[in-house]
Amino acid sequence: MSRTKFEENFGQRPGGVMLSVHIADPLNEERMIETLRAEGAADVEQADGEWRAGSWADFDPVAAPRLVESASNRERQQKEMDRPK
Question: How far is it between the farthest Cα atoms of the chain?
């Protein structure tokens, strides 16, 4: 199993730009993830929280992120697992 960029950085988020996206319709989630990756996003994580007065009211930047995989990555991994040995 390969290590994620998060694991490679010893549990710390790497420095850089963090972009927050509110996805109102869950049907758009996969398309948004694929768009972020296509534009160069290194890690995409899922977070729940409240945005108030221009900042996160309850986001914990030191908590371990919940990284998400795109459908194409999941499909590729499933094919690798299903391949005869």
Answer: 55
